[in-house]
Amino acid sequence: MSLKIYLIAGEPSGDLLGARVMRALKKIDSKIQIFGVGGETMMAEGLKSLFDIKDLSVMGFVEVLPNLPKILRHFKEIQQDIDRVRPNIIMTIDSYSFSIRVHKMLKKHGCKIPHVHLVAPQVWAWNKKRAKIIGNFVDHLFCLLPNEPAYFTPYGMAATFVGHPVIESGATCGNAARFREKYSIPENKQILCMLPGSRQNEIKYLLDDFMQVVSNLFAKNPDIFVVVPTVKTVGEKIKNKMAQWRVPHLIVYGEKDRYNAFAAAKAAIAASGTVSLELAIARVPHLIAYKMNPVTAKLARRVLKIKYVNLLNLIENKEVIPELLQEDCTIPKLTATLDNLMNGREQDTKAALAKLGLNTKQLPSEKIAQILIKLARKS
């Protein structure tokens, strides 16, 4: 009988990780059956998603409230589908707040299937007590950073360092010439990548400001050409918002165009997140920005235990990548910082990237797939 693996990704970043794991699983066992919840990338790998993950792509205490009825309904749908499928193993991917609630619900329902989670919560940054909490509901945890397992193993749970998935993103393999040729972008145009996020509330709080910042720079430098690599969960909203924008721009989808655009970019402005690592390894000078509901920001600061939010800055304990957050995320500050980057300010990220353990010989998705299959066969 073929193995059944249930994957649950609640937002685009997890969808991307899930798709790579799916590919690795099918390489090991072509008869494996994969069920669950995912986005466009996992569906391209053959997943029939239980529902559209757009409803789950929300971040923040206050921002979640309007979407709560839909989210609770989706919890029930997941539980019922797992009862129907009866998989050998369940793995949630990223989106810790959503994922831990899924595991709590399933455990409360009496689910005895092994529970796995990919992307350890950053307990070293937020709350070390989370390490103990997740151990009550998850049987095996996949960690992206080499120092992370030590935070979880004292509580009796299995935690494995698998490597950071940025190493298999393709961000270092972009082709600038191919991108310019494909979209007929002349060589004299300076490509600026604009990445306002993949969640609905990120677009709400950042897109207008990003557009104004770039408009300011375009007024001084009409050779700027904007590329917006995005995902379908927010793509239509971005397209509608930018429909009347006078700055020459292009919206692209998919990993190939994303990384080719990075290769061609002179600089980038991005919402805080994993994209900063992708831009760093692609050697694109960039800044990160973030704004959220003021109440959410106030609550977050009460639990945040770190000086920086960008992983590279945390590792180096200094601002390698400019980060403009909340009150500092203003149009004048963003404009001045991005102007410096467009005019040749370099970023030395080599030391920080070396400390991330990115020299692992085995791809993270392959290691995850091997462990998943091993655990599934034992169940």
Sum up the structure in keywords.
single chain, 379 residues, alpha/beta, six-stranded parallel sheet, 17 helices, globular
Describe it for me?
The structure is a single chain. The chain is of the alpha/beta class and 379 residues long. The protein has 17 helices and twelve strands. The chain has helices at 12-28, 40-44, 61-64, 68-85, 96-108, 129-135, 149-152, 176-182, 200-220, 232-242, 255-264, 275-281, 294-303, 311-316, 331-342, 350-354, 364-378, and strands at residues 4-9, 33-37, 89-93, 115-118, 140-143, 158-161, 190-195, 224-230, 249-253, 265-271, 286-290, 323-325. The strands form two sheets. A six-stranded parallel β-sheet has the order 2-1-3-4-5-6, sandwiched between helices. Helix 5 (96-108) links the parallel strand 3 (89-93) and strand 4. Helix 8 crosses helix 11 (255-264), helix 9 (200-220) packs across helix 10 (232-242) and helix 9 (200-220) crosses helix 15 (331-342). The longest helix has 21 residues, at 200-220. The chain starts with a strand and ends with a helix.
Provide the residue-averaged pLDDT. 90
- Amino- and carboxy-terminal Cα gap: 13 Å
Global geometry: globular
Order of helices and strands: EHEHHHEHEHEHEHEHEHEHEHEHHEHHH
Count of DSSP H/I helices: 17
The computed structural class is alpha/beta
The count of strands amounts to 12
Radius of gyration: 21 Å
> Poorly predicted ranges (pLDDT <50, ≥5 residues)?
none
Helix content: 40-55%
Which strand-content bin applies to the residues?
A: 15-25%
Characterize the largest beta sheet: strand count, sense, and whether it forms a barrel.
6 strands, parallel
Strand order of the largest sheet: 2-1-3-4-5-6
